[in-house]
């Protein structure tokens, strides 16, 4: 029995009843693929259901304002995906009369759609014989065929794409592509793969050669930048605070956050107080009180943020202040959302500070 036939048989028996598998609607397939990038299915599923409820069609998503989209996306991270999602919905609605392109080449022209996503939409929605290669597929192919090329190298990317095309089942491409990704996610897992019950174990190179734990090979290691941020929860006598929208490029673009002071290491209270006056303007600060008892470390793919939140009471009204009670209405990074939930909603910490 061929590699592809075994994958199809396994998928038929083990596939999860996920909502985007009950349809070939390209809008829903596209939405699921964008939401699940860098995201586990268990985490992404509630977001998919939430987006479908708020935006049943691509026209509904196109008509939404960006802040609404970002607020619904809150907690998923990689917010450029949300902005690209919104931009592409508008392109489809305005330039394509609500219809998604039905081929890989034209799908690739849309913002936020790369080779993998274009292949997934083309094959799952339109039955095009396009191979998909995501992290799960890299792992299955590398182990089964014993490929030791780095999956993040140009040579490796090209080789795996060609290999995936060579072994795919063109007649059942929709189920085959979904089956191969599902097999990597549930069976041929990064850690503790289920090799003993694997339908491919008699011919798996990695299993025969003892290379299951070393394949696939990754080349470049991401350099992590350490940053030290001191967020300022400025509060005036009217219980208003400063909340600012991040402008320009970079992480959390167009999301809201408190003003902050960044340092090259942990900063003492006395040194921070000198910086606060510069950050918030001409206000007399009574005192600074650190709100979190323990240091917060927020890990992103390329950055580790060492974070403290500080209470900054000021002596007069903030002209640009907003009510503290309205903070939950704004789209924010999960770091800020957690702070608001813990210290402004479910805790008396601020009142006791």
Automatic annotation (TrEMBL):
Highest taxon of the lineage: Bacteria
SMART domains named among the record's database cross-references: ENDO3c (SM00478)
Pfam family membership, one: EndIII_4Fe-2S
Keywords from the named record: 4Fe-4S, DNA damage, DNA repair, Glycosidase, Hydrolase, Iron, Iron-sulfur, Metal-binding
Its EC number(s): 3.2.2.31
Leading EC class: hydrolase
Family annotation (Gene3D superfamilies): Helix-hairpin-Helix base-excision DNA repair enzymes (C-terminal) (1.10.1670.10), Hypothetical protein, domain 2 (1.10.340.30), Nucleoside Triphosphate Pyrophosphohydrolase (3.90.79.10)
CDD domains in the cross-refs: ENDO3c, NUDIX_DNA_Glycosylase_C-MutY
GO molecular function, one term: metal ion binding
Cofactor binding mode and count: Binds 1 [4Fe-4S] cluster.
Residue span, HhH-GPD domain: 35-186
NCBIfam families on file: mutY (TIGR01084)
Task of the protein: Adenine glycosylase active on G-A mispairs. MutY also corrects error-prone DNA synthesis past GO lesions which are due to the oxidatively damaged form of guanine: 7,8-dihydro-8-oxoguanine (8-oxo-dGTP).
Name of the protein in its database record: Adenine DNA glycosylase
Source organism (scientific name): Lentiprolixibacter aurantiacus
């Amino acid at each position: 029995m061929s590699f592809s036939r075994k994958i199809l048989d396994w998928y038929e028996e083990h596939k999860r009843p996920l909502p985007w598998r009950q349809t070939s609607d390209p809008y829903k397939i596209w939405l699921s693929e964008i939401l699940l990038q860098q995201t586990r299915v268990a985490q992404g599923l509630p977001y998919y259901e939430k987006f479908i409820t708020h935006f049943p069609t691509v026209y509904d998503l196109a008509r939404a304002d960006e802040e609404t989209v970002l607020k619904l996306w809150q907690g998923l991270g990689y917010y450029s995906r949300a902005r690209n999602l919104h931009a592409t919905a508008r392109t489809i609605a305005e330039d394509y009369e609500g219809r998604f392109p039905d081929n890989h080449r034209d799908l690739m022209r849309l913002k936020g759609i790369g080779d993998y996503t274009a292949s997934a939409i083309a094959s799952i929605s339109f039955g095009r014989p396009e191979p998909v290669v995501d992290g799960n597929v890299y792992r299955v192919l590398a182990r089964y065929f014993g490929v030791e090329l780095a999956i993040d190298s140009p040579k490796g990317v090209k080789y795996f794409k060609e290999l995936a095309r060579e072994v795919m089942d063109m007649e059942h491409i929709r189920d085959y592509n979904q089956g191969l990704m599902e097999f990597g996610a549930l069976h041929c897992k990064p850690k503790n793969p289920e090799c003993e019950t694997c339908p491919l174990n008699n011919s798996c190179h990695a299993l025969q050669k003892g290379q299951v734990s070393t394949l696939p090979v990754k080349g470049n290691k991401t350099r992590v930048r350490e940053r030290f941020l001191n967020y300022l929860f400025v509060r005036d006598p009217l219980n208003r605070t400063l909340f600012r929208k991040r402008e320009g490029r970079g992480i959390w673009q167009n999301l809201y956050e408190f003003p902050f002071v960044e340092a090259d290491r942990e900063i003492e209270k006395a040194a921070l107080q000198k910086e606060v006056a510069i950050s918030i303007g001409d206000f007399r600060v009574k005192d600074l009180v650190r709100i979190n008892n323990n240091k917060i470390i927020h890990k992103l793919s390329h950055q580790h943020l060492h974070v403290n939140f500080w209470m900054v009471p000021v002596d007069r009204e903030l002209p640009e202040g907003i009510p503290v009670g309205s903070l939950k209405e704004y789209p924010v990074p999960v770091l800020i959302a957690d702070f608001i939930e813990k210290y402004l909603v479910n805790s008396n910490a601020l009142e006791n500070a």
